[in-house]
Amino acid sequence: MRSKAWYQFYSQAGLKTRLLIWVLATAVPLTVAAAFFISSRTLGIIESSSHQNLENTQQLLTTSVSQWLDTHTKAFLYFVSQADIIGMKSERQRIQLKKMAAYYPYMYLISTTNLRGINIARSDESPMIDYSDRLWFHQAKSGVPITFESVISRTTGNPVLVVSMPIKSEKGEIIGVGMFAMHLESLSRQVRVTHLGKTGLAYVVDGENRLIAHPDQNFAEALHNVGAYPPVAALRQGHRGIMSFKDESGQSWLAHVNAMENGWGIIVQQKESELLGPRRIFQQMALAIVIGAVLILIILSWWVVRKTMHPIDILTQAVSGLTTGKFSHSDLEAMRMNTKDMRFRNDEIGMLADSFYQMSEQLQETLSNLQEELAEHKRIDAELEKEKRILSNILENDPSGVALIDRKGIFQYLNPEFTHITGYTLQDIPTEKDWLPKAYPDTDYRRHVVETYRRNRSSTIKTADAEFKMTCKDGQVKDVEFRTTFIEDGTVNVLNDVTERRRAEIALQESEEKYRNIFENALEGIYQSTPEGRLLSANPAFANMYGSASAEEMMHDLQNIRHQLYVNAKDRDRFIETVEKEDLIEQFEVQFQKKTGEKIWVSLKSRVIRDAAGKTLYYEGMAENITERKRVEAEIQQKSEQLRELTWKLSEIEENERKTISRELHDQIGQNLAILGLNLNILQTLMADTASDLVQSRLKDSIALVKQTTVDIRNLIVDLRSPVLDDYGLVAAIKLYGEQCAFRAGIDVSVQGTEPEPRLPAHIENAMFRIVQEALTNIIKHAQATEAVVHIKADAARLYVSIADNGIGYNPAEIAKPGVQGLGLRTMLERAMSVGGRGEILSNPGAGTCVFVEVPV
């Protein structure tokens, strides 16, 4: 059936269409086939390149992790082979452990145990622990050369990597176990630097399928078992290389999986939509190119066929035009011009065009005569129709209701507005007898209407106006104005609905009365004034504010408010400039001078009243006496200045006390500790061969205690008063303090900025150093942060200091509640205020905290 229908269409199509079908049937399949071949080859290359990129990223990460592990294991292998370790002496091992801990600070614990699992020595100062229940201990004890175990640390509560090795004697016998532990965060940093597009990520799982490294550290916090995750499951089933899978949300991914020698899995994955994005773009471009090529081929084929068939089309259209009645002068002239050039062709088309040209000339002459006769008739008909249309448009679009009534009282015409106002149509009220009882149901009122109409009819006037209350078809009563024009054949009645206008007039009267009551009894001053300074109106409250007995007296006394009312005439200029620019002023505070000469503070709320052209007519608004409020604000400002000065003096006294205590600690206690340490070292040397082991042990403990006390005293001296602050300046002191905080608390502290030139005054340096010191102390104690950044910047006028961390943050609203401890935060802000500056603390739960301070220099 389809082939038959196609054959019927083809046989009935014109020559142009059939020729076009043959051209396209040959060229289009060839074009599509070539495009498909090229695009399929290119898509294969793009997909292979995407897979190779994923594989290269995986191999790079595997190499990085392997080097990371190799570096630490080789170092520890060397460590457990040293003589001091093999000797299994606690004191000698402790010295080596501390050396290695100092060299590798991120190894938070390095220890040795005997074959019973009891600690021999530890790098920290914690008590010795029994490790006999640990898997890493049993693996090393059994002779496994190196054991990697991922656990949640019982010491820190964080995920850590424990590496253990057997300690062997010179004869190769296992005599103990050495181990070190470090946070897996350092491994996550190795993974975090691996970038792969917007959705790509890499992660590491241990031999038990637990997630030990991930770009988002939160995922690795609890060592989740991800063995069911498709890439990890495929890895444990022996799969290596590229694989595709869908996650729980149905999102498609491509992943490259590989396993390390120690059983760890390295997985790099990226969303398939992003990784194969170039392939999809190329497919869309290829499709667009094919479609474009086909369209161009179709257009080009159509243009060639059309160009070939154009002469035949012209003759065909000309003949068709004659058969459909196109005999106008312009039609015939167009036909002649279209066939003129074809007359001179030496073929059948030329002969046919010449014959048609001669026939059209004869037909044009005949039609020209007929058109002249018809033109005059059309002109007359057009004039009549135009007048009728104008009258109809006037009546149909008249905003007033219009009714035409003949002398017999029969309605001849009602326009749409008449029906809109009354609801009645010609079918409802064909005559006046039908109209009057419906419009005026009350008999007496209807008699009044009729008598008024007759009286106007009997007079000599041609037009009469009247206003009646009319009942509409829906029962609504309206106030209607009538204008009746008496003509020879009857009357023309024009009516307008004035109901709303009458209601508005009544409402306006009531509104004016209400406004007058508000105006007269308002507690705040209300006024109107011209731009030139003349008072147009004022209520009693405004007059009382000025000191006048009445508004009339005030308007009489004030002829120019710029000079008589404003204490400073420039305030009036500033008021006009502001209100002209903004049209409305919510609050404009200014001083007025009362009639008695007393000065008061007033808050103005004003707006501009303009005419239709935008010209200012007057200003109107309200005035509130704020003299008492201004007095209270001045007292508060004075008290604040006194408090700020007192705070500054207190800070100065505190710094002097800190300096004195710091100097005494350095000069007295520091020197005494140095002498005591020297004496203890001398005693240790003198008694090395004679003293018992117990005495030697006590001397060593005493020397260590003196050293630690000396370090504590030095830290206390720096906390009390940093010598670097006096000698080198603010930035140098903060950098040193930041390094000390980083060493003591184990967080990264970065100090950015250069020393201001010239150097800042001492009281500003002291205040800024104490603010930074307090902020870093809060971060260490409360923020649980791993990073802190201090930024210092100064220009010619101001100093800017910010302290930001990536800790847990807090809710400022909770700190602001009564009874909640926030003394440190308030102290920082008060220190900034004491040197004329300001401070701001920004924080959100889970988003860290930022302290910002700005002081003038």
Quick gist of this model?
The chain has 857 residues and is an alpha+beta fold.
Major β-sheet strand ordering: 2-1-5-4-3
State the helical fraction. Answer: 40-55%
Model regions low in confidence, pLDDT < 50 over at least 5 residues? none
Task: Figure out the total of helices.
Answer: 27
Distance between the termini: 96 Å
How is the main sheet built? 5 strands, antiparallel
The geometry reads as flat
Regarding quaternary structure, how should these chains be classified? single chain
Number of strands: 25
| Strand fraction | 15-25%
Structural class: alpha+beta
Report the mean per-residue pLDDT as an integer. Answer: 79
Radius of gyration equals: 51 Å
Question: How does this structure look, described?
Answer:
- It is a single chain.
- The protein is an alpha+beta fold and 857 residues long.
- The strands form five sheets. It has a five-stranded antiparallel β-sheet, sandwiched between helices. The protein has a five-stranded antiparallel β-sheet with strand order 7-6-10-9-8, with helices on both faces.
- α21 packs across α27 (823-834).
- The longest helix has 66 residues, at 15-80.
- The chain is flat, with a radius of gyration of 51 Å.
- The mean pLDDT is 79.
Key attributes of the depicted protein:
5-stranded antiparallel β-sheet; 857 residues; alpha+beta
